[in-house]
Amino acid sequence: MDQQQIWDADAALRYDTPGSGMFAPEVLEPTVDRLAELAHGGRALEFAIGTGRVAVPLAARGVPVTGVELSRPMLGQLRTKADETAIPVVVGDMATTRAPGEYTLVYLVYNTISNLLTQAEQVACFHNAARHLGPGGRFVIELWVPELRRLPPGQAATVWHSESGYIGLDTYDVLRQHVVSHHFTFDESGRQARLDRSPHRYIWPAELDLMAQLAGFRLESRHADWTGSEFTAESPSHVSVYRLPEPGAGTS
Fold it and tell me: Three-state DSSP class for 241?
């Protein structure tokens, strides 16, 4: 499953769920609030900008936003909301593609760094973020914590969400540190289901921190969510803020 095949025209048309899921105000508004704060009056770059779920409201807050996006159908959906003048986008992958200019903030939300399926590509993504940032610039990643504690020996899958009309489960390949997410969506009769799948390489927080160090970042903060809740051993996900050193800053 390559990313171009996953994020095709059909996926792009079904991606937006206004007012619910990842588009729910209680999910989206704290995300935009925190990113606007971290941009600190400067320009922001979103890797894998998609249909503009975050970029459009962030730009409406007065933050100049540029994007990088691999999927042309996803970009096509973004263009129904904002033109190239409002939110310029470079077509390409987040590990290597260069956007013009310098930024105070690069961000990568909703587990998307795990769409890069090798450690080398994920490390390259950190280096690419660093290339776009000025001194003191920040790279923000939102990512889930692998649920291996829920995976007993001999079992390869976990159900991570179940509700009327929908089941989400993950199958793990712990040798390669890979997960395939399976999304079963049932029709109104409950007898027919559509299956969507997406592959990921999961990353432990400590591994993510090492990737950041290799690219010259230090961990500035880590919270369990965008509102600043404490990150604990039980947190299912985290928002991690990495920062480049400023001129004259010592190392710690």
Answer: strand
